[in-house]
């Protein structure tokens, strides 16, 4: 498991004592290479780390852009490279799930950078699926609507803002963490053995509204 904070590590250790955790700055490619390279081999990978700094298009800053590119896109590419190389070297089939967003498919106000990085993840995943398929490695994305994580609550805590979004979701609610987890588990499992290069929408119907 890749974790971003000491609190995350402590929580994971309490809940899942059998899991080995690593605390790594995903923007530091050398540190990631050393930590992840030494932790394998892997058969499954979920790239879930992300950040959302909301700015209007005209106010996007270079620093916000770089941070989002480093974590939302660059880390997905780099960690997947390390893990896929290990899978290929071991000669084992594998599955990679990249957590994208409904924002990769629909423009959202003040989400210029976030929407763009998630769209990049979708296309990266398709290229990965094409190139890694011959090695029996499947690559898919899950694309949730707003999820009630800490980040989701921070960015969608304004009732007026959240109501406008919920009104566009036919099921009338945001996603819970388990909604996304269950979709990821499906894509990691043999139950999706013939699925690769696909995006599984977990959006309550947002994109059809």
UniProtKB/TrEMBL annotation:
Q: Which GO terms describe its molecular function?
A: carbonyl reductase (NADPH) activity; L-xylulose reductase (NADPH) activity
Under the heading InterPro entries, the entry gives: L-xylulose/Carbonyl_redctase, NAD(P)-bd_dom_sf, Sc_DH/Rdtase_CS, SDR_fam
What does the UniProt keyword field contain?
NADP, Oxidoreductase
UniProt-listed PROSITE patterns: ADH_SHORT
User: What SUPFAM superfamilies does the record tag this protein with?
Assistant: NAD(P)-binding Rossmann-fold domains
Q: Which domain of life is it from?
A: Eukaryota
The family database entries (Pfam families) matched by this protein are listed as: adh_short_C2 (PF13561)
What is a biological process (GO) this protein takes part in?
Answer: glucose metabolic process
The record's section on Gene3D superfamilies has: NAD(P)-binding Rossmann-like Domain
Q: Write out the similarity annotation.
A: Belongs to the short-chain dehydrogenases/reductases (SDR) family.
Quaternary structure (record): Homotetramer.
The molecule here is called DER reductase
**Which gene is annotated as encoding this protein in its UniProt record?**
Der
């Amino acid at each position: 498991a890749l974790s971003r904070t000491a609190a995350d590590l402590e929580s994971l250790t309490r809940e899942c004592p059998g899991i080995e955790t690593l605390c790594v700055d995903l923007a530091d490619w050398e540190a990631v290479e050393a930590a992840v390279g030494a932790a394998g081999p892997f058969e499954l990978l979920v790239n879930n780390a992300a950040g959302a700094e909301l700015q209007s298009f005209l106010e996007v800053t270079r620093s916000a852009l770089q941070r989002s590119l480093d974590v939302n896109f660059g880390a997905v590419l780099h960690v997947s490279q390390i893990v896929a190389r290990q899978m290929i070297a071991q000669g084992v089939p594998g599955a990679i799930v990249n957590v994208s967003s409904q924002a990769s498919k629909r423009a959202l106000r003040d989400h210029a950078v976030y929407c763009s990085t998630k769209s990049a993840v979708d296309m990266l995943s398709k290229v990965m699926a094409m190139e890694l398929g011959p090695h029996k490695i499947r690559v898919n994305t899950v694309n949730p609507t707003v999820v009630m994580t800490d980040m989701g609550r921070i960015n969608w805590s304004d009732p007026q803002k959240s109501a406008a979004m919920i009104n566009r979701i036919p099921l009338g609610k945001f996603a819970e963490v388990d909604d996304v987890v269950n979709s990821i588990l499906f894509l990691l499992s043999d139950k999706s053995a013939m699925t690769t290069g696909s995006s599984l929408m977990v959006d309550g119907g947002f994109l059809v509204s």
